[in-house]
């Protein structure tokens, strides 16, 4: 390499080192599929999954996180797993993760829990998903003792899922950050689960609303473990959900470095509190994301 080229290259690196994270990400960040958590549009999915998915594709969403798996019937949204996969293939769409309802099984026998996990694995493998995600703990499970017990069970679940060639992740809400005699559920889950078996799905809305941490701080403590993100905005007055760009979260400032995070997938989400309805909210968030945030991802 001649001297002029060397100086040019090192000059670019030197400038990049001084840039804020958002600017650096413009240069180095990989591109990810634009994702949507289908719980955000659950009313329309209940009525007409095919048309709803087609509409979302027209907005730019091409990857999804599902919810509502029927374990006994092995079905999604009234379709068998294989039929739903055919529907996705026909539309040129993917499902990279699913929220599966583990909560009722966490207090059941090991055999019942294992059987449910096996059913989830079959469904996720049929959809060619990368992850099975635990999205929710019932109120009675949100005690220090339960967090410790559930963390042990998550390691077992994660090993079972990993052996099947899939990833397992835990999705945070706000209750994990609530103080309980000097401790909290989030720290227990982080410290007592095996990072090789239990990845983390970072819901940035809940981190900002309910904790004293920033998404960047959490990722710094557990780099490469936050393989998925949920991106949603917070209403400026009620602090409820709202469309991207309508709320108080400045994602251009708080968005973490995807490489440090270990990011593989992200999903835009709005669980409710729609300005008009779920259809218009999906469009509003897509428009804002493509204009202001997609360049970083």
UniProtKB/TrEMBL annotation:
Residues 58-265 form the Xylose isomerase-like TIM barrel domain. The keyword Metal-binding does not apply. It comes from Arenibacter certesii. GO terms for molecular function: isomerase activity. InterPro entries: IolE/XylAMocC-like (IPR050312), Xyl_isomerase-like_sf (IPR036237), Xyl_isomerase-like_TIM-brl (IPR013022). The keyword Membrane does not apply. Keywords: Isomerase. This is Sugar phosphate isomerase.
């Amino acid at each position: 390499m001649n001297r002029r080229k060397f100086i040019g290259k090192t000059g670019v690196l030197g400038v990049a080192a001084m840039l804020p994270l958002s600017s650096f990400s413009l240069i180095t960040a990989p591109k990810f599929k634009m994702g949507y958590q289908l719980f955000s549009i659950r009313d329309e999915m209940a009525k007409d999954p095919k048309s709803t998915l087609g509409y979302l594709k027209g907005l730019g969403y091409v990857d999804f996180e599902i919810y509502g798996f029927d374990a006994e019937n092995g079905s999604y949204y009234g379709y068998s797993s294989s039929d739903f996969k055919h529907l996705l293939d026909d539309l040129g769409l993917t499902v990279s993760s699913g929220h599966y309802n583990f909560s009722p099984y966490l207090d059941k026998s090991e055999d019942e829990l294992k059987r449910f996990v096996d059913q989830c694995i079959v469904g996720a493998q049929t959809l060619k998903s990368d992850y099975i995600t635990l999205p929710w703990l019932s109120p009675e499970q949100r005690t220090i003792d339960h967090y410790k017990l559930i963390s042990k069970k998550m390691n077992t679940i994660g090993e079972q899922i990993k052996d099947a060639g899939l990833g397992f992740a835990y999705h945070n809400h706000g209750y994990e950050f609530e103080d309980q005699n000097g401790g909290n559920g989030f720290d227990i889950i982080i410290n007592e689960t095996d990072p090789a078996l239990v990845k983390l799905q970072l819901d940035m809305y809940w981190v900002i609303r309910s904790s004293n941490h920033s998404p960047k701080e959490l990722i710094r403590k557990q780099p490469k473990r936050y393989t998925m993100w949920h991106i949603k905005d917070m209403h400026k007055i009620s602090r409820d959900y709202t469309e991207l760009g309508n709320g108080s979260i400045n994602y251009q400032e708080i968005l973490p470095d995807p490489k440090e995070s270990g990011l593989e997938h992200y999903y835009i989400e709005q669980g409710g509190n729609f300005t008009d309805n779920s259809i218009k909210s999906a469009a509003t968030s897509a428009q804002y994301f493509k204009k202001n945030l997609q360049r970083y991802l």
